[in-house]
Design a protein that fits this description.
The protein is of the alpha/beta class and 835 residues long. It is 39% helix and 14% strand. The protein has 21 helices and 24 strands.
């Protein structure tokens, strides 16, 4: 099977032109000037935008074919429709819908790269069910039936958009600008940008970019371009996404040069351009001397491609005189090398003559690239895809397949090829697998290109990454950040594109009223919270066993805290407790040694011994509060202290009542004599102690104290403590002791002036005053302190209230026993009492 191929774009990837190319010649009005044709049984046709021309509007004063075209910018839809209809006509005779020859049948049509070319060719060719392949971004067809015979040599567009989003998120470019074309960019703005917004991207501007078709619109177009350029350069966004097609590069090169005559602020400000895969480096002749620095450091996406072996030799062998049928090569040659062929209808004055031996490799990259671009690679594979589909169809239809030796293409219908084209799968000459998915999209990824320009107007496209949709999820997007070259204005430092500076550590974002969500103020984290990353949306609390540092940007592990025997406070309290215990033991020893002396025997010496023992145990009980809390110590701390101290206070109460009753019993005719005696004192001590013990038993039975960890009271500490279990029972124990103390104080206060040498009421009054003062102060102090200092407060209260009892009651007696033993005489004391 003979297949003849149109590969015009492969030869001229740079001086891109926008006149559609067809495979036939007509003599009708508005002729297509640039065609390339070879005859064959089956033709793979190409309708490809190649040359920019700018026409005057039809004025109807001349025949349209006689209107002289200008030499600038774009194409019109009529050429595309004309080229499409020519493919359906007999070669050399333009009669729409009439074809009389049996050869030169169109098997498939390759079109591109503009979306308009797709749309216009599909309007005609889909009627005849001719398979079409586009090598640029696939547009949304006006009629869904046109999609049936149309597929693209272009990966699924969603992969490219996801790649751009990943790129923005990777570099944290959240404040960007958008330029888009009305033809291919509206769907991007409507459907894709909202997804960008959901991922935290904001847009400083979204500007449409238009192209013109007629010379009368040039001034208007330039003014519009300058307006858009002024918006871009005055923007604080350093990143601009350009969603357009191949002609947009003309805009990027033109506006910096033309802006010299405009007062545009910040026109030297660099931007990082992110360009779509459907874009390509294009230029027009007058731009060859203009700087292309604006593209330095730009990032673009391109259909994945590889170098095709033999392409360089193909370019070296192409000469403008080698094939007279290929007319537009001469036009390209003249524009590229700034010369003229002797037989061309151009002004010969001051023109150098083209020899045809000029070297393509001598041209700067802005005029012509010697490497195959991604668009050219797509056309290359599109041709091979059609060839493989034809071969598959030829092999499967053994009875009616088209053969060169007699079986005609007329036995096969064009629509039959489409089925095989959809399912084609092959390895191209570079080893890459070429196939299509169920939607007709090319199963391939994208290359990420970094543009590097040079003073001689040349440039390099450096592949720095890729998007591979069939790779594992964590490897779909890859980029070598270290290999990137940034625009010169950024001094090779990664650009920042934010509405405002990042919030530093220890701060969080807060919305600015009337501004996009990417614009915000920064507020310090509230107390107790941190932000350990830049630009955090909110501050958060540390985990329970950590606390914020002063800068509120780091969580520091809390240290474990309890009143230890090894720290100064614990050591001091231990020494004090042991010292008071030693003093109490010494006093007890004195009283035991002198137990038979009058001063000891006075006022019930058993109560005295019981009081001293309870005070001794109270001092020692304080040691239970020092050290790491354990289950046993937590159970014993409050209950042991409560019972022991209740015994001490009840002993004082019994002593007080005994003194008062003893005085009252000495009065003649008093009935109080029957109450004076050991039985009453013992009853008071026993009943009070049993009542306190009962409260403690209920406490232990219902909600006993237990070891606990407090992570909240102190910001920097984990407090090991004894949880009281029931605060009510704890305060019941304290309340009962307070009740006993108040009664003792009241009774002692009433009997403080009784005339008795053995009257302890004065000393008991003072001791109870100290006791009540200590414990009344204890309650608010205990509530207001935290951590180990709560334990210290309770120890202080135990020690000093016990010391108050010991110090107010026993020193006078010890003084008499040890210092003035002569006073420890019953007769003397009785005589004083009688006096």
């Amino acid at each position: 099977m003979l297949v003849f191929i149109l590969l015009i774009l492969v030869l001229l990837p740079q001086m891109v032109c926008d006149v559609p190319v067809a495979n036939c010649i007509i003599s009708n009005p508005l002729p297509i000037n640039h065609k390339y044709y070879q005859s064959g049984d089956i033709i793979i046709a190409g309708i490809i935008s190649q040359i920019y021309k700018l026409y005057n509007r039809v004025s109807f004063t001349f025949h349209p074919s006689e209107e002289p075209p200008e030499d600038l910018i774009h194409f019109v839809a009529s050429w595309t429709y004309l080229a499409s209809m020519e493919l359906l006509s007999t070669w050399g005779r333009f009669i729409p819908n009439y074809k009389c020859d049996v050869q030169n049948n169109v098997g498939a049509v390759i079109s591109g790269p503009d979306s308009n070319v797709y749309l216009f060719t599909a309007n005609i060719l889909c009627i005849y069910k001719i398979p079409q392949l586009g090598y640029g971004f696939a547009p949304v067809m006006n009629d869904q039936s046109q999609d049936v015979f149309f597929q693209v040599m272009f990966p699924k567009g969603a992969h490219q958009y996801k790649g751009i989003l990943q790129l923005l998120l990777l570099f944290r470019w959240t404040w960007i600008g958008i330029i888009f074309s009305h033809y291919s960019g509206e769907k991007f703005v409507q459907n894709v940008l909202p997804e960008f917004s959901q991922r935290g991207i904001c847009f400083d501007f979204i500007e449409p970019l238009q192209m013109v078709y007629f010379t009368s619109d040039i001034t208007e177009m330039v003014a519009m371009w300058m307006k858009i350029y002024q918006v871009i350069m005055s923007s604080t966004a350093n990143v601009v996404i350009v969603h357009d097609e191949i002609h947009t590069m003309i805009f990027l090169i033109t506006v910096p040069a033309v802006s010299e005559s405009f007062d545009i602020p910040g026109k030297t400000k660099g931007k990082v351009w992110i360009m779509m895969a459907q874009m390509e480096f294009t230029s027009v002749p007058f731009q060859r001397y203009w700087d292309i620095d604006i593209t330095h450091g730009a990032l673009s996406f391109a259909t994945h491609s590889k170098d095709v072996i033999g392409f360089q030799n193909f370019l070296h062998n192409r000469k403008p005189t080698s094939d007279e049928e290929d007319g537009f090569i001469q036009d390209f040659w003249q524009q590229a090398f700034n010369c003229a062929f002797p037989d061309t209808e151009v002004e010969k004055q001051n023109e150098k003559i083209c020899t045809g031996e000029e070297k393509l490799e001598s041209l700067p990259g802005s005029v012509f690239e010697m490497s195959m671009t991604s668009h050219s690679y797509s056309v290359y594979n599109a041709v091979h895809a059609v060839a493989h589909a034809l071969q598959s169809m030829h092999s499967s239809a053994s009875k009616c397949r088209a053969r060169v030796d007699g079986v005609r293409w007329s036995n096969q219908q064009p629509w039959q090829l489409h089925h095989f084209l959809r399912s084609v799968s092959f390895n191209d000459t570079t080893g890459e697998m070429i196939s299509f998915d169920e939607n007709g999209d090319l199963v391939a990824g994208f290359d990420i290109i970094n543009w590097v320009t040079f003073p001689n107007k040349s440039f390099l496209r450096v592949k720095v990454g890729k998007i591979d949709p069939i790779a594992p999820k964590d490897k779909i997007f890859n980029i070598d950040v270290e290999a990137l070259v940034w625009p010169n204005n950024f001094n090779q430092v990664q650009p920042i594109s934010l509405c405002n500076d990042f919030c530093q550590l220890g701060y969080s974002k807060t919305k600015k009223e009337g501004k996009p969500f990417c614009c915000y103020d920064c507020l310090p984290c509230p107390e107790g919270k941190i932000s350990n990353l830049k630009d955090m949306d909110y501050c958060y609390e540390c985990v329970k066993d950590h606390y914020p540092n002063k800068a509120q940007d780091l969580c520091i592990p809390k240290y474990i805290s309890f009143l230890s025997h090894e720290e100064p406070l614990g050591i001091s309290l231990t020494i004090v407790a042991l010292s008071f215990s030693s003093v109490t033991a010494f006093v007890l020893w004195i009283f035991i040694k002198h137990k038979d002396t009058p001063i000891v025997k006075a006022n019930n010496r058993n109560l005295t011994f019981t009081l001293l023992i309870s005070l001794l145990l109270s001092f020692l009980c304080a040691l239970l509060f020092i050290g790491q809390p354990e289950s046993v110590t937590c159970l014993l701390r409050q209950t042991a202290f409560g019972i022991i101290f209740s015994v001490a206070v009840s002993c004082v109460l019994a002593k007080t009542i005994t003194v008062v009753l003893a005085f009252m019993a000495t009065k003649p005719g008093s009935r109080m004599r029957k109450w004076v005696g050991k039985r009453l004192a013992n009853s008071i001590v026993l009943s009070s102690s049993l009542m306190q013990a009962g409260i403690c038993i209920i406490w232990l039975a219902t909600s006993p104290p237990f070891p606990d960890v407090d992570m909240h009271s102190m910001p920097e500490e984990i407090i090991l403590e004894c949880n009281e279990g029931s605060s009510l029972m704890f305060y019941c124990v304290l309340g009962f002791m307070g009740f006993l103390a108040i009664i003792s104080f009241t009774v002692a206060f009433l009997g403080r002036n009784l005339p008795d040498s053995f009257n302890e009421a004065k000393f008991i009054t003072l001791s109870m005053l100290v006791f009540c003062s200590v414990w009344l102060t204890f309650v608010p102090t205990y509530q207001s302190t935290k951590g180990k200092y709560m334990v210290a407060v309770e120890i202080f209260s135990i020690l000093f209230s016990s010391a108050g009892l010991l110090g107010c009651i026993f020193p006078p007696k010890c003084y008499i026993i040890l210092i003035r033993p002569e006073l420890n005489n019953r007769q003397l004391l009785m005589r004083k009492n009688n006096n």
